[in-house]
Specification:
single chain; 138 residues; mainly beta; Metal Binding Protein, Guanine Nucleotide Exchange Factor, Chain A; six-stranded antiparallel beta sheet; three-stranded antiparallel beta sheet; 9 strands; globular
Length: 138
């Protein structure tokens, strides 16, 4: 399930608990979901890169972010195909595609085929699973 060519970060459960806030741990390590419209990145548009809160792996650029109306930060595509891993998810009686960080295998959210052009995809992510790194002024 790991991303090809991405250096893996493997930590014990105790190390993850020390490294992450309780909310980050619940989302990234236990596949939790924050409530809609509660995450800090749901309505933000500052230029920069969204990185994994667990390991710092670059995930999404702010230019790919759009308002989906779902209450979660949504993106049309990741920074690269190697940044994430997509995994079939059949939990809760649904068939979805889970999105995980390719470096630390942390749960980020899900991808759906109802996004805008050109990709037609909606990467629906949890704010707790990411950090925003602003673009540096030249």
């Amino acid at each position: 399930m790991s991303g090809a060519g991405v250096e893996q970060l493997v930590l014990s459960d105790e190390e993850w608990r020390r490294r992450l806030t309780p909310e980050q741990y619940e989302v990234l390590r236990r596949h939790g979901t924050e409530r809609a419209f509660t995450g800090c990145f749901a309505g933000t548009h500052e230029p920069g890169t969204y990185v994994c809160a667990g390991c710092g792996n670059p995930l999404f650029r702010s230019g790919e972010k759009f308002e989906s109306g779902t209450g979660w930060p949504s993106f049309t595509r990741p920074v690269s195909e190697r940044a994430i891993v997509e995994v079939p998810d059949r939990s809760y009686g649904m068939i979805r595609t889970e999105v995980r960080c390719a470096r630390c295998d942390g749960h980020l959210g899900h991808v759906f085929p109802d996004g805008p052009p050109p990709s037609g995809l909606r990467y629906c992510m949890n704010s707790a699973a990411m950090r925003h790194e602003p673009d540096r002024a030249g």
